[in-house]
Amino acid sequence: MSVSEPDWLVWAREVQAIAQTGLAFNPNGYDHERYVALQALAARIMAARGGGEPPMVEGLFARQAGYATPKVDVRGAVFRDGRILLVREAADAGRWTLPGGWADVGLTPAENVVKEVREESGFDVRVRKLAAVWDRSRQGHTPELFHSYKMFFLCDIVGGAAAVSAETTEVAFFAEAALPPDLSVPRVLPRQIASMFAHWRDPDQPTDFE
Known about the structure:
Elements: H1 7-25, H2 32-50, H3 54-62, E1 71-80, E2 83-89, E3 95-97, E4 100-102, H4 109-121, E5 123-135, E6 148-160, E7 168-174, H5 190-201, E8 208-209
Parallel strand pairs: 1-6, 5-8
Antiparallel strand pairs: 1-2, 1-4, 2-3, 2-7, 5-6
């Protein structure tokens, strides 16, 4: 699958990663000022093409420390009676998505998705399998500042009940042929949900990855 993000975003992100890693391994060396200049350049490119303000973007970059690595987003595919669990995201104009979010430090990927599903939907789940690991930039999502991987887990309900949270405004189950049209595209895509249905129908299907 081809990269769907614009070239300028990919290049600016790579420049930022080089600068961040250089500052981590050579914080006071000869090239320190050059790495700082590269970070500022990446911020100006992001701001100019993405519509933000350079100081704001530069501040986000400056808070990233250590070797530059992708961020990790986890999503839970939870089924009941042949339908998949979706939640309305308060932060995205009430659009629907699989429950999930950025992985927290100190928890395993599976523990993270269990926590996210409980917090956003009210259901307690047990992870059955890792269904997919996808590079977000190659999936067709709306572009984001940082590079990230998306991990999708097939989960079984073991308790709890539907409940909204500070992050969600509605919790519901949908059949594959009746998904809501207003999906939160930054978070999940229709074909990713279709893939989760395929894994639910055939739990022995190998994990999707790229």
